Input
Amino acid sequence: MRLVLLGPPGAGKGTQANQLSQHWQIVHISTGDLFRYHLAHNTELGQSAKEYMQSGRLVPDNITEAMLKDRIAQPDVLESQGFVLDGFPRTVPQGLALDALLAARHERLDRVVLIEVPTDALVQRLVGRRTCSVCKANYHVQYHPPHVEGICDLCGGSLIQRDDDQLETVKVRLAVYHEETEPLVSFYRQAGLLATVDGNQDPVSVTAATIQAVKGGSHD
Ligand code: AMP
Output
């Protein structure tokens, strides 16, 4: 199963990708997490991505595509039943690059699921989000607080607010989504791959709707 989750920042792509990877035993690939790993380890790639990420803009396609190409060639991906991409592609050129990478392996995408959430809900979700600095689990100050303030329920790590979850950066990220990523919706609709789910409900219902959409229940 090869899936792409599409949707604005804060739509819940990471949460849903986690669920789908467990459901189908496929690898969850998040380009945002990969970049954050490189940033935390101060690699050359991390240094090239830093400014873009901190300002909420997209890292240039050539850098992102090279990172993704490397990731999908790793043994865990090659040996698994597929992958769910979260945060890639984010531009039409990245979508074309993904097609080419898969075609070279005689593979193709099975489904692209667009998770839709109204903008005001996205802003609330993002600015209230807290992320575990160790295991990356997500919390929300209002909707999903940890048992002990500032501490991850799962691993005891400290919770942080991502730099790019500050309000001003959130606004930039949403504008970038509309300008650069939204054109992928018609790109995948024309390819007959797109399904849409309502992401403005509890995560368990979104997962159920997403699995249904992937199985073919709700074409766009
Ligand atoms: P995310 O965690 O998916 O919201 O990604 C965090 C940041 O990483 C984004 O705001 C971008 O700066 C960068 N990033 C992640 N994925 C991509 C991508 N496919 N293309 C360009 N930049 C990306």
